């Protein structure tokens, strides 16, 4: 029973790790994406840089995913 | 939380205006333009960001007139684009700031009608950059009399002021229209950190407009009562009491009483009580305003301030190109043209 509760909490933690980092990345990306689209609208040469800048906040989701995987498979 | 949803709108428009500002002619290019002859200047402008406007107007105008109209058209199109690509709060602020062009156009049409100018002549002088679009301005110009023009503006915020027109000279309602555009703008600005600087800028702009008028009117020896009616209240440093005091002074007294204001640093080297031309003062005051807008545009990158910086820089670029082209046409010395450039 105790083990099942612990597993549940680990799963909840893993979910939060991915979910909250996804939310944070989304909040960060909304402005970066809008600015990138604005810059590209004026000069299409900004496409590469704009895309790169937009996906930078995605790295935080990867950290979240790593934490989730550690929670699920190491503990 | 509300700011979270406003941020992308500001991020989009500020990225666009910063990219647009990069395309403006850098100030290092103006000395090169001064070394060119008029045909070369026209060719330079034809090959720049103004190409589309020059091409579209080339069948209708030639030489310097083509240049003038292309510059005005580009200015109007740039400002309209800003209104079209923005939304929400930033769009509201830009629209309110651009009302000055509505006022400009209404004044142009009324003056044109007053002096009996042709429809084409009036339309050549309007800049469709405000809330009134070109087709609406065309309809206005087609009206027979000043009364009809005023009646056609019934749905606009300018109508209550325009109904005060009782015939004769237009200067009274023109001054009231100017005041109205600034009053509306001051009321429209909110309390966010970026908007606080925007408000400060507008108040500085009012001060500079008042200073320019004070210099002109006092140089012409106009009496206090008339001066006071023309000045706009709501400035940053020139409060109502300052305006009352300054408008009662003679020109030499006015010059000597300005050293207590921050604007004095910008104009002190060109102002004296024996000065003959006021062009240098206007240029210095415009440069002060441009530098101030440029300086504050970096304070809050996701606000109206970078947009304001672009709006002002674009206007100054158009004015500078016009000064160079007209100066070259009139064969003025390079030094004189240079002194009238806002840099």
- The rough form of chain A would be described as rod-shaped
Ends distance of chain A: 17 Å
Largest two-chain interface: A-B, 15 and 16 residues
Largest sheet of chain A: none
Spans where pLDDT lies below 50 across 5 or more residues of chain A: none
Order of helices and strands of chain B: HHHHHHHHHHHHHHHHHHHH
Q: Strand pairing plus helix content of chain A: what structural class?
A: mainly alpha
What percent of residues of chain B adopt helix (DSSP H or I)? 55-70%
* Share in β-strands of chain A: under 5%
- Approximate strand percentage of chain B: under 5%
- Count of alpha/pi helices of chain B: 20
Q: What would you report as the Rg of chain B, rounded to the nearest angstrom?
A: 21 Å
Given this structure, which CATH class of one domain in chain B is correct? Mainly Alpha
Low-confidence stretches of chain B: none
Family (chain A): Belongs to the ATPase C chain family.
GO molecular function (chain A): proton transmembrane transporter activity
GO cellular component, one term (chain A): proton-transporting ATP synthase complex
Subcellular location (chain A): Membrane
């Amino acid at each position: 029973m105790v083990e099942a509760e612990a597993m549940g909490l680990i799963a909840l933690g893993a979910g939060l790790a991915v979910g909250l980092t996804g939310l944070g990345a989304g909040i960060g990306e909304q402005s970066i994406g809008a600015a990138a689209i604005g810059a590209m609208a004026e000069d299409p040469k900004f496409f590469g840089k704009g895309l790169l800048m937009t996906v930078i906040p995605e790295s935080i989701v990867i950290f979240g995913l790593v934490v989730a995987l550690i929670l699920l498979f190491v503990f | 939380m509300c700011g979270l949803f406003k941020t992308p709108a500001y991020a989009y428009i500020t990225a666009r205006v910063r990219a647009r500002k990069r395309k403006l002619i850098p100030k290092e290019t103006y000395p090169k333009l001064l070394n060119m002859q008029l045909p070369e200047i026209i060719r330079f402008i034809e090959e720049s960001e103004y190409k589309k406007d020059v091409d579209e107007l080339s069948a209708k105008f030639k030489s310097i007139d083509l240049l003038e109209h292309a510059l005005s058209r580009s200015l109007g199109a740039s400002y309209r684009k800003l209104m079209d690509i923005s939304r929400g709060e930033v769009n509201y602020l830009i629209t309110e700031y651009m009302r000055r062009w509505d006022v400009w156009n209404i004044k142009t049409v009324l003056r044109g009608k007053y002096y009996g100018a042709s429809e084409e002549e009036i339309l050549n002088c309007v800049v469709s950059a405000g809330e009134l679009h070109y087709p609406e301005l065309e309809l206005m110009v087609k009206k027979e009399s000043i009364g009809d023009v005023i009646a056609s503006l019934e749905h606009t915020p300018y109508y209550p002021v325009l109904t005060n027109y009782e015939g004769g000279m237009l200067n009274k309602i023109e001054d009231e229209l100017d005041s109205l555009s600034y009053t509306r703008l001051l009321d429209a600005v909110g309390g966010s950190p970026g908007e606080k600087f925007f408000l400060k800028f507008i108040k500085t702009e009012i001060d500079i407009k008042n200073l320019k008028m004070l210099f002109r009117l006092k140089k012409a020896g106009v009496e206090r009562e008339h001066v006071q009616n023309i000045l706009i209240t709501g400035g940053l440093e020139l409060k109502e009491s300052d305006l009352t005091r300054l408008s009662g002074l003679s020109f030499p007294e006015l010059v000597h009483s300005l050293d207590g204001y921050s604007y004095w640093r910008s104009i002190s080297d060109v102002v004296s009580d024996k000065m003959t031309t006021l062009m240098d003062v206007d240029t210095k005051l415009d440069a002060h305003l441009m530098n101030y807008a440029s300086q504050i545009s970096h304070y809050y990158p996701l606000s109206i301030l970078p947009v304001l910086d672009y709006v002002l820089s674009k206007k100054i670029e158009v004015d500078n190109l016009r000064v160079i082209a007209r100066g070259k046409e009139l064969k003025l010395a390079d030094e004189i043209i240079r002194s009238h450039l806002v840099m």
